[in-house]
# Entry
Amino acid sequence: MRLSGRLRSSLIIGGQGIRARKMRTFLSMISLFLGVLAVVTVQAGSVIAQRALLSDIEMTNGKDGTLQVYLPSHEDATAVALDTVRGRSDAVAVARAQAIIGEPEVRPVNEGGGPIEDGDAYAVGGYVECDASGVCREVGGSDPNQPQGEAVELSLQALSGDIRRFRPYRQESGEWLSFSSAPSMGPRIVINTKAAEAFALHRVPAEMRIKGAVANMTPQIIGVVDDGGWGPNAYVRTDELLNWLPPGSLGDPNFGGVELMVDPAATDVEQILRSRLSAAGANVDEMHVQPINTLEEMADQLSLMRWIFLGMAALVLLIGVAGILNVGLATVGERVEEFALRRAVGTPRLLLAGIVLAETLLTGLLTAALAIGAGVLGLEAASMLFAAEEPFLADVAFPWQAGVAGVIAGLVAGVLGGLIPAIRAARIPIATVMRA
Amino acid sequence: MTPLIQLSGITKTLTGQDEARTILAGVDLTLRSGESVAVLGRSGSGKSTLLSLIGLFDRPDGGQYLLGDKDITRLPERRAAALRSAEFGFVFQRFFLLKHLTAVQNVSMALVNGQGWLSRRKRRATAMAALDLLGIAHLAKHKPPRLSGGEQQRVAIARALVREPRILLADEPTGALDTETGKLVVEALRATTDRGCGLILVTHDRDHAASMSRVLHLTDGVLNPAGVPA
# Structure
């Protein structure tokens, strides 16, 4: 009760002090506002940047904790993998192949599936294959005798299930693949934004060629996603592709082979795969399982940048502290008689110090609230103005960590700025009122 | 009946820049309930120093100070603050009212001192009762700059009385007031003794001193009854 009374007394008197000296309080808030705003901005920027970076990396690498399983080279590996994950939602097999969509019998504008940016297509050629004797030669790619035509080469990823559980692609238009409907003879594909840009430049009859396919297909493009990829990609249901392609032709190791994305809770998948591959005669020692650990990898990259900016914010905050300190000392100097009088009427020294600290803490908290409010409004404004150019700003929420950092910064500034004035106030001799 | 306070052989030496100066050289003083004592003396004679020792603003170098039957000569500051709040009321020459607070808030400030807790409503009611006692309840919402000197001093007296102290210490309370207003203020102070309060009034004004039940002279650091040469 006694402590509570003192706390309440210091808050009441501190509040009276702030109201009585509005201009001084305002002046001390200006520099502190900038300091707290700097801390809030750095913290919010850091969290938002981390989210944006993580979101981009998750699209290409996969969500943290997901197990990536790479299968050994074996003719039955793809079939075993597809059979293992069939009907499961906690594991998806991704088999890669190169596909060319466009005019028949022509060389694509981006041989090898290179990116097409600003109208320039980048050919990356075929791939190099080395035999057992160590002799390497370029294979794949297109027939050099074919004429250059209106066709786009892309990386085709055949999915056994919805991969967005592991790689959260952003839907840009149309729809994503449905895995619940019956497979279509005309493969439905979802292309990425790079492929969409390429097809916008090269409007061609949609015939899809895949090495090893029994015939060329006519794909149905049903949607566009942002997958964070640098080159044109397309996604297709594995069962739709298998209508045209034998399983052995899927998962060409030169294009990434077969990869499984597995929920960390699905511990049986790895064991079943090992058993089946072993039974099929594959060397299971070549099977690699690795968890995705994006956050940890990113943490190192982000922490240095974050510390540098936090250091700068701390410097700005120190200026704010100096402002509070300066105004606090001047105010205590002006209030010598008031503090002496308060001691005369029985106010303990500790409470006097508490009154001054309460004033600076309330000022710090008020400033922090204003700075956080400004941060929220600033982020809203940035989201409205720049969301078109920077997609990560769309629907971005003010991170709670920035709010907490702002409140802590305000409190710390209040304590640091108020401590010396508080000690001075507590030391004012009571006899000051007698000698006046 | 046990005296309110009893000072025996109180000494105090102040150390200045050049040399130590003995201000009080063995003061004896007894104050009883309902008694008013005027302390007269030249400027620098140590009247205010004596009052600051009685009010526990400072500690004597020697002697004994009893509050009731308790020896409070060497009281730690924390307990001294509690006693100042509970037992003493102070009125100063300069009223020391806080300009940003209204009259009733100035009186209430003595109730918001960390010594116990009263609700806002109770604080206000107690402060209003103190103002009413001094006949200035109608000025409750006025801030000090809008009050006359006499009104301000009465607000200060209300502040001193709001915790119902047993001892009221007044240091030149009429020094900043005209004669007529001074008389009213002294009368207000003296009236507190009717309710059993002990009053020590430090003053230069012999007329005001004469209205007290006892008059003492502080000369050469010693208190003597008025008219008795040192």
In short: Residues 108 and 201 of chain A are 13 Å apart (CA to CA). The first strand of chain A starts at residue 67 and ends at 70. Chain A has eleven helices and 14 strands. Chain A has two domains: 2-59+296-435, 67-291.
